């Protein structure tokens, strides 16, 4: 598959270009709003063409699919343009600034017969696949609650617009809460109904929240507690899933790398759970490519992206109002 990059981003250079090539594809063009950056980026990553024109990239008949990793406010118009040009789309999260726009993107791709996916990477990790298997196989009985701890320190080279630009979709809620929403949905196979949340600006940036805590109610009665932050330098990330017959305790698994540890605690004692150490982005790209070939579905499709964004929107509304807030899911 021939890919075009919409966005000369850090995540593309660190992870996605290698994943596209590992899956047997290639990146043939990259878009940046800065022509000099487009030229430098394409040269540095052995990409045939660099351009500052979205129309030029999308009119390239060699390109079958695009990967969108620009700032959040650009996702919607760029995805719609790509769909109109007949390109399959893999888009970074959050899909758009609103779940309404995200749903429109997904419907447009569906109507055009194109594959549309969200780059929710954690559900591709060997650790999370092993956790899901432990839960769905009944090893902890009926699930009662989940605790997600995803407070991290945002590296300086990734801060920028994420900590000071609400117009571009900055803030920890659109950046990390959407990931946690997708991860919880992945493990439970159900969608949160309502949330209660608080957020804070701790001084890392200005104008956007850099920390958030929330509680979610699930249709089954499972309660979910989450903590996200950009400001915690010395924490461990992870999640705990507690059930009637046991608990899964996973540390350092909310990460792009195949690391961490998983412990299953039951009446019999503590048991270490092994997991595969594959590159999670390579798995996501492989599944996307198979979906384009008519085999299966992406690991996280457009509907997954719309729903994770709807949860994040509800968390943001609750944090602003101080009220318990219903999650509103758009029709797709």
Automatic annotation (TrEMBL):
**Lineage top rank: taxon:** Bacteria
Record Gene3D superfamilies: Dihydrodipicolinate Reductase, domain 2, NAD(P)-binding Rossmann-like Domain
Q: Where does the GFO/IDH/MocA-like oxidoreductase domain start and stop, copy by copy?
A: 129-248
One Pfam family recorded for the sequence = GFO_IDH_MocA
Sorted alphabetically, which keywords does the UniProt record give?
A: Oxidoreductase
What is the recorded name of this protein? Answer: 1,5-anhydro-D-fructose reductase (1,5-anhydro-D-mannitol-forming)
The record lists the lineage as: Bacteria, Pseudomonadati, Pseudomonadota, Alphaproteobacteria, Hyphomicrobiales
> Domain Gfo/Idh/MocA-like oxidoreductase N-terminal spans what residues?
2-120
Presence of the UniProt keyword Ribosomal protein in the record: no
Q: Which InterPro entries match?
A: Gfo/Idh/MocA-like_OxRdtase_N, Gfo/Idh/MocA_oxidrdct_glycsds, GFO_IDH_MocA-like_dom, NAD(P)-bd_dom_sf
Molecular function (GO) terms for this protein are: nucleotide binding; oxidoreductase activity
Q: Tell whether Transferase is among the UniProt keywords.
A: no
């Amino acid at each position: 598959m021939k890919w075009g990059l919409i966005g000369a981003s850090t995540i593309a250079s660190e992870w996605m270009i290698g994943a596209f090539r590992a899956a047997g594809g290639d990146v043939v063009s990259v878009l940046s709003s800065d022509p000099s950056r487009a030229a430098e980026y394409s040269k540095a990553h052995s990409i045939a063409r660099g351009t500052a024109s979205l129309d030029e990239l999308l009119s390239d008949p060699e390109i079958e699919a695009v990967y969108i990793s620009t700032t959040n406010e650009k996702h919607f118009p760029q995805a719609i343009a790509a769909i109109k040009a007949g390109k399959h789309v893999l888009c970074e999260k959050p899909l758009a600034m609103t779940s309404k726009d995200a749903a429109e993107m997904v419907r447009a791709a569906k109507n055009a017969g194109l594959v549309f996916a969200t780059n929710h990477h954690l559900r591709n990790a060997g650790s999370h696949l092993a956790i899901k298997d432990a839960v769905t196989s009944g090893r902890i009985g009926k699930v009662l609650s989940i605790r997600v701890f995803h407070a991290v320190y945002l590296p300086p080279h990734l801060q920028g617009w994420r900590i000071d630009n609400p117009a571009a979709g900055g803030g920890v809620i659109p950046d990390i809460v959407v990931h946690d929403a997708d991860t919880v949905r992945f493990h439970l196979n159900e969608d949160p109904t309502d949330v209660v949340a608080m957020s804070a600006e701790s001084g890392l940036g200005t104008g956007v929240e850099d920390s958030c805590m929330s509680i979610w109610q699930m249709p089954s009665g499972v309660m979910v507690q989450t903590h996200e932050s950009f400001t915690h330098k010395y924490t461990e990330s992870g999640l705990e899933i507690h059930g009637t017959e046991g608990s899964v305790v996973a540390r350092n698994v909310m990460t792009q790398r195949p690391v961490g540890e998983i412990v299953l605690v039951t009446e019999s004692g503590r048991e270490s759970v092994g997991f595969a150490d594959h590159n999670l982005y390579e798995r996501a790209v492989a599944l996307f490519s198979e979906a384009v070939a008519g085999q299966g579905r992406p690991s996280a499709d457009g509907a997954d992206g719309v729903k994770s964004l709807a949860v994040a929107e509800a968390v943001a509304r609750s944090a602003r109002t101080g009220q318990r807030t219903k999650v509103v899911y758009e029709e797709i």
